[in-house]
Amino acid sequence: MEQKKKIVIIGGGFGGIELAKKLKNKNVEIIILDKHNYHTFQPLLYQVATGGLEADSIAFPIRKIFKGQKNLKFRVTEVKKVFPELNKLETTIGNIDYDYLVIATGSTSNYFGQTEISQNAMPMKSIPEALNLRSLILQNLEAAIIAKDPVKESELLNFVVVGGGPTGVETAGAIAELKKHVLKNDYPELDLNKVNIYLIEGSPELLGAMSVQAQQKSKQFLEELGVTVYTEARVQGYDGQTLSLVDGRKIGAATVVWSAGVKGVVLEGLSTEVVVRGNRLKVNEISLIEGYQNIFAIGDVAAMITEETPNGHPGVAPAAIQQGKQLAKNLVNLIENKPTEAFKYFDKGAMATVGRNRAVVDINKIRFQGIFAWFTWMFVHLMTLVGFRNKLVVFVNWVWSYFSYDRGTRLIIRPFKPFKEYKKPHDAEAT
Amino acid sequence: MEQKKKIVIIGGGFGGIELAKKLKNKNVEIIILDKHNYHTFQPLLYQVATGGLEADSIAFPIRKIFKGQKNLKFRVTEVKKVFPELNKLETTIGNIDYDYLVIATGSTSNYFGQTEISQNAMPMKSIPEALNLRSLILQNLEAAIIAKDPVKESELLNFVVVGGGPTGVETAGAIAELKKHVLKNDYPELDLNKVNIYLIEGSPELLGAMSVQAQQKSKQFLEELGVTVYTEARVQGYDGQTLSLVDGRKIGAATVVWSAGVKGVVLEGLSTEVVVRGNRLKVNEISLIEGYQNIFAIGDVAAMITEETPNGHPGVAPAAIQQGKQLAKNLVNLIENKPTEAFKYFDKGAMATVGRNRAVVDINKIRFQGIFAWFTWMFVHLMTLVGFRNKLVVFVNWVWSYFSYDRGTRLIIRPFKPFKEYKKPHDAEAT
């Protein structure tokens, strides 16, 4: 009897999970590797960072996802390097062999080489990073109340979000709602007029990938909530106290959220020639990395460059899920010496929420904004969340927040430090 | 017009919160200080540590508790020292004056001077400590799966709880249920026969403060769940790998939970003469610390020594709440030059849960065990939880767990390290 082929998947995000699930009853051996023991529902990270949801409700233990899947093993580990000529991975728990390797490592914040910004601004791409940001926002409010120097006070009360994509728009909106509904009640000593929220975007419009209606309406919604929106404004630097724009404007701010871009998390050991724009891996129409016979990439880290998609597919959950699904079929085809099928992306549209009753939705030519868009956004996100308990807890939180105008999860879970020590920890994972 | 008296309360636990709430419409100025920005519902910490509840559902932002209370300010700070002769506190955010000071700092784990144990065993008295323990339990399971050395594997799969009070009984029971319902499904590679849970108690009986029926039944319940109970067993040392008992027995274990005792968190600057057994502060029948005119202590840190209570009151939430309530009245009486009233403790009874359908309850002469006790336990804890959202989220989790036999919150939120580096971080707060 022939030995089962061994498929190793690096990453338990949307793409990796979908691929492994679709291989459930196939005659293969699967090993899925992740540095965390949980899958993160990234689209709702901003709600964790702004006190709307508990971290546990948007994360799901990877072992639970694969309960009962007999052809799969899961390991918590960090992959250090791949040796393509040996079909071998070096990891923190030893070497792992593979017949087929799938890189589904996702993306991380892109600071475009600006070290100073990367050391001082807050990323929001993982649960520890979101909890770290939540703690910083709350710590800065506590510090503002006792600040004696008006310049320091102003820095502590200025919140800047850099990047006008969906994450930036949603985060700025959520901080504005925090100001409107929570600070008013819980920080009576604060002068709310001193609390400012800025959203900084380099291009002329917010939500560049969406329709003109969505772009205009999201800006209007943000301004209604009191957010100051700067478009065509490029960030030059941020030293932890002052954010400088290229045009010379300066904003003193102790909290700067960085959502201005992402880059793929590539793996050491691959040819540098396959790394293209955005640090993504160049793959063909069956997700195979150029120049390799058995190494694939899917999701945010993959750039499937075709005539229709000169920059690859958008770095969103549906693209990763669809690529994972298609690759499951193609891996089986390859093993059984059957012809493979080219990936076809089905664009499900895009949406972003700004705040209560305020969201924008594009589904092909159908575009709508406002309260119905907001309910659509909530419904789609609830349905996509992994796990019944998580759906239930998120739903309870949303219903409760809707009626109470409140945010329940406001724990500072890192040590409280006086203002001058406020720096982003170098290893955000440690918090 | 006379100036308002300034009452400073150190600690936002059950006692401090109750005292401040009861002073709501009084003509005083209140400052409440805590090193966290949230109140912790300590009786359910063990469920956070064992993956049953999210941390956010048993914690409540202190600012929200006092929303709308105009005579109160809240500050996140650590108090360093008191200067009784100056009526002044030294804190990390500067000096704070008081007319009346109330010490409600609670208790922390007591290792009875055994440094080695304190460095290697896991405490469970705060949210960061409970999350730290949860992460360690899950990390040790992941490490066990890949362990090659059978001795190491056995250490990783032995879970020891030291101390047979309510916390120890509840924790041992919860780990046993984790084994029974979660490990079976989610860790198919584990040989469950190798997973052992021990509960170690120095005295002849578990739940020393409860009735004989509760003591016997809780032991029986634990044994039904597969917990090995050692009574009259005293711990001599724990080096991080091997737990040694005074009688010579040894247990190799990578996880040791320490719930064998607590001690009061006293404040530097007070006379050492007022510190009695258990590191508690000796107070009179109106909670005034012996030898002082305006410094009080309530809750776990206070020992109100009378003829009826030669060791003070038990360190439980109802005692702290009742002392806080009575002290609110007496502080007003003192300010208005009216006679004070001696504190009278109303014993509400005691209860402990071992697992699904298994709890023990003593209410005066009424004693019952089993499923009805379990529902009583849940009802009482739900009602005592602060905040409607928290009640709702905990209720949803409990109902979901009851029907699914599962635990939903199983995130490792500290960095994953290989076994040899597993040590308790020196500053558990940092995790």
From TrEMBL, chains A, B:
Transmembrane segments: none annotated. GO terms for molecular function: oxidoreductase activity. Residues 348-402 form the External alternative NADH-ubiquinone oxidoreductase-like C-terminal domain. SUPFAM superfamilies: FAD/NAD(P)-binding domain. It catalyses: a quinone + NADH + H(+) = a quinol + NAD(+). Keywords: FAD, Flavoprotein, NAD, Oxidoreductase, Transit peptide. Belongs to the NADH dehydrogenase family. This is NADH:ubiquinone reductase (non-electrogenic).
